[in-house]
């Protein structure tokens, strides 16, 4: 039961995020949708290393617990989160520039203006 | 081609729902809470000192840290480089943008002096900075013992670096020279620590230095040193990012 | 010696990290600025030398394949780098292309990002670990976003942003694919995972392949996720276009091929690649034709044509037999040279000599004997014919159709160029940057023309590469040599 809830939650986050990424009319909201989708993917990775009854993979008082959860996906998720932060920061920097140039972040308006400039 | 996709508005929605229907049964078919963890078990056996473990233990009390810095150290280097490339990219984008809007630096100074976040904020920032630095460095240096480490501590350090300059003049005065030297130096030191192993005849990023007692501050060989470099680099990158965004906000307002 | 292989990834990164502090030290003097301008190129020259030394152990004979365990930790706990003839070919291609196409920009940060591009693409070609490949792929992506955003075009920022969104969408899917594979097997190493597959212990679902395919396919201009191609190539300089279309897309293809060969050795996976390849080939060539007919920009036509060409490459690689790999590698190399040359010619009006060069590239792209393109297309047709399913026969028909369409729009472009005033006066147009690009195009032209006289030895070399690439047993034995037996779980 717990598994169903957690996996559905993670997949739902990805679905919501991707739908938002493609459908949102405001570009900043697309970035937020991206954050949601990324957290869904990260949750999936976390679940990949989960063990029922496993403890944190950290030694307390000089000895490791007997049953631990997998440390590898945790390290992977740490990496994935930092990658996400980098990409989101760059996305926001680009959005600031887009706003300066076009005065709006409406997706349709920005796209129309871009196509005009590209075909010039 | 792209025109067609734009017209059919429901395609993306259908795609994402379809993706969900594809992913969910796949994951639900997996044995939940009983993951195979082939690589993970080998790491745990090494840490627990099981006879015949396949790899050597690296002596860190926090196994996630051993994975991040030793077993999968190349990933971490890549991720540092990603932050670095993102900060550089953001700097390029935003600096060229503000230069186009305001060619004269006079305008810049004028804006700087107008931003005043108030006496209270200023004094609070002055008091908080040393505390934040302390907490940040503590988290970084205990990364191999407790949850935390270079990335988490680096974020705190970034705030500590950025806060006083933000409170006083909106972040514009944070020295670009200092920041870029920290980020370059810390990244290069991470690589150089790895290269020392190469010079000793081992593969890149093989941990060296004595492993010490498990759970002590000075243990786990080069791992704390690597995490310190990670922390400094993350701190510098994020401070640079905050600075670029802050300058731009001023130019816009 | 093999320990030094890692320097290919590390040295460019080290150079990138040190670039800004260096520029503060040296930037004020004239000589210092000269050094900085050539710093990136020098780093790549050094790594190229290291490539030679490692691949031959200093003895002049290839000593491949070899596997290097990062940090000395055995697979699957640690990450490994794997160098065989296939990855060596792409390493050389990346470094030589970067040396040729390195821009003369004054902005030091552009050099810095290009060094990051070098490090990450070489990492992708070398890495034998699924998640490590993902990290390098993201690094490559972030560096290219920065390079696109700083292009001197008013729409650069928004184009870069749209590219970023599409790319991030792909990486979420790729991450989900990695999660599926890890949940099933508990490992990330390609060789180790492929041992599971070969032993019949696990079969990874097709969905995982599709997710990874779409994720890494963004850079490879795969059908469905290639919306960024015409926009980006319309914005960046011709050198960057040549780099993106010529080299970076191929590295993504290399990764996809490796993953397919090792983890998904069943017909459904190759058929998915075949279908997406056909769609890309037909769609790309058709829109390219359409753009040329409307008199659209040359760079846009070339962008769509590049989508079509990559579709063909995917079709070739979808026959994961020796012949398919051979044709795929040959097509990819051919496309690298021809597309880079065409993009170099696209920045300025051409005089009659340069138009002659353009015609040479065009003829090879269409496949007119005795140019290399002809032999590759011939081999591809034989390959498709020998495989002989219904889908393959459709592929033959569409492949021939695409060739005709290609011929049509290339002749249209050439006839448009011929009526331009500069063509008649035959004088060199454009600024110094454009003139240098035109000179570089001659270099690619000589490479292509020279290949005519070496068709047989080239084919033999490429065939050797294909044989080694296909040999999964060799890869597993080299990578897992000092490692545990994946099924017994104990020490060997």
Give the helix/strand layout.
The complex is a heterotrimer of chains A (120), B (253) and C (492).
Chain A: H1 2-23, H2 27-48, H3 71-102, H4 107-118
Helix pairs in contact in A: 1-2, 2-3
Chain B: H1 2-7, H2 10-28, H3 38-48, H4 63-71, H5 73-101, H6 105-114, H7 119-141, H8 150-169, H9 176-199, H10 223-252
Helix pairs in contact in B: 4-5, 5-9, 5-10, 7-8, 7-10, 8-10, 9-10
Chain C: H1 7-26, H2 30-56, E1 66-69, E2 80-83, H3 85-101, H4 108-126, H5 130-149, H6 156-185, H7 190-198, H8 206-217, H9 228-235, H10 238-263, H11 267-293, H12 298-317, H13 322-345, H14 352-366, H15 372-387, H16 390-418, H17 421-425, H18 432-451, H19 455-470, H20 472-479
Antiparallel strand pairs in C: 1-2
Can you offer a commentary on this structure?
The complex is a heterotrimer of chains A (120), B (253) and C (492). Helix content of chain A is 73%, strand content 0%. Chain A is mostly helical and 120 residues long. The relative contact order of chain B is 0.14. Residues 102-113 of chain B have low confidence and may be disordered. In chain C, strands 1-2 form a two-stranded antiparallel ribbon. The two termini of chain C are 25 Å apart. Chain C has one domain. Chain C is an all-alpha fold and 492 residues long. Chains in contact: A-B, A-C, B-C. The interface between A and C is large, with 43 and 36 residues.
Mean pLDDT of chain A: 89
Named at the architecture level, the CATH assignment of chain A is: Orthogonal Bundle
Hey, roughly how much beta strand do the residues of chain A contain? under 5%
Largest sheet of chain B, if any? none
How many helices of chain B? The count is 10
Average pLDDT metric of chain B: 80
Strand content of chain B: under 5%
Rg of chain A (CA only): 20 Å
> Structural class, judged by helices and strands of chain B?
mainly alpha
Return the string of H and E elements of chain A.
Answer: HHHH
CATH topology descriptor of chain A? Helix Hairpins
The helix content of chain B is over 70%
Query: What is the count of helical runs of chain A?
Result: 4
Q: Could you give the count of β-strands of chain B?
A: 0
- Give the number of DSSP strands of chain A: 0
CATH class of chain A, please? Answer: Mainly Alpha
Tally of separate domains of chain B: 1
